[in-house]
Amino acid sequence: MGIFKWIHKDIGIDLGTANTLVYLKNKGILIREPSVVAYNERNSKVLAVGREANKMIGRTPGNIKAVRPMKDGVIADFEVAENMLKYFIKKIRENYRLFRPRLIICIPSGATDIEKKSVLDAAYEAGVREAYLIEEAMAAAMGVGLKVQEPVGNMIVDIGGGTTEVAVISLGGIVNSQVIRVGGNEMDKRIIQFIKNKYNLMIGVRTAENLKIEIGTVSQDKTDNSTEIRGRNLVEGLPKTVTIKAEEIKKALQGPVESIINSVAFILENTQPELSSDIINNGIILTGGGGLLHGLDERIKNEVEVPVHLAEDPLDSVAKGTGIALEEINSIKEALINSNKV
């Protein structure tokens, strides 16, 4: 294939703790896979990435590890994260014959300079020509269609796998924000611990996540729903089936949900009156997979007495925001972070 058949394209990546979404300019979201890498510990060879690696979690022999390189929204294992980035970028480049693309990657607003630099370094090692970072809350706001450049206060609550980010945005920047290490993964852990304590039953992360999705709730509605799960009896060591009610999942999730609500209340209490007035008028926008938890939007609304709106596509808001950022990159460069700023 001749060199002139190759084209420059821009890529946006929502590099999440649980899942990675890749957006190609003018094409939309083309990759949506778990942020998991499986590799051989003996020779460090990568065996699988994404969906295939996720299937290996909990099923690998001693010399193979299936790990998530992202923890709490930032890179915990640089080498593994670099391999994951290379895999996703290579996949896009091969399918669309891209030549050294420009890249925007999302990070939490609380990321340190070291964490920012590690993400940028991984991007350049993956073969891009330019790399920028954008804060997740800003990307989420752009992804849901908020006019972030205007002198109007908007509040975003983005609940991801590893973190929840609460931010007030105005005039193209984040005025006030807080990132807490509570998200979908913490909810899963609480469900696992609750079932272990009550039933002496050990279940896996996937089972916990399925429980959260199928019967998870934080409201009084649907608390009679139930489902059967299988796990390992910790007393006898044998497989066992139990019936779990939605009310039990509600109890298990009480701690994480209260942490999210407290963060929202804290930011509201520490926001200028003019911006607070805008937020009351416009409401709070809820994005991220955690926002899909049944009744969470209504619960936050009742607790802080401000309208709450669930984004139309909460799972895709951040990734879509990177796409809009790519379209408007020249006008929003002040909101972006590159190697010169860390």
Descriptive account of the structure:
The chain has three domains: 3-33 and 72-138 and 319-341, ATPase, nucleotide binding domain (Nucleotidyltransferase, domain 5), CATH 3.30.420; 140-182 and 255-313, ATPase, nucleotide binding domain (Nucleotidyltransferase, domain 5), CATH 3.30.420; 184-254, ATPase, substrate binding domain, subdomain 4 (Actin, Chain A, domain 4), CATH 3.90.640.10. It has 342 residues and is an alpha+beta fold. Helices cover 36% and strands 27% of the residues. Helix 8 crosses helix 10. It has a five-stranded mixed sheet with strand order 3-2-1-9-10, sandwiched between helices. It has a five-stranded mixed sheet with strand order 13-12-11-17-18, with helices on both faces. Strands 5-4-6 form a three-stranded antiparallel sheet. The chain is flat.
The main pleated sheet reads as: 5 strands, mixed
Write the CATH architecture name of the largest domain: 2-Layer Sandwich
Task: Quote the average pLDDT.
Answer: 89
**Poorly predicted sequence stretches spanning 5 or more consecutive residues:** 1-6
The number of helices is: 11
Strand content: 25-35%
Based on CA atoms alone, the radius of gyration comes out at 21 Å
- Helix percent reads 25-40%
Distance between the termini: 39 Å
CATH topology term of the largest domain:
Nucleotidyltransferase, domain 5
Main-sheet strand order equals 3-2-1-9-10
Apparent shape: flat
Total individual domains: 3
CATH class of the largest domain: Alpha Beta
Number of strand segments = 18
Helix-strand sequence? EEEEEHEEEHEHEHEEEHEHEEHHHEHEH
CATH superfamily (homologous) name of the largest domain: ATPase, nucleotide binding domain
Structural class: alpha+beta
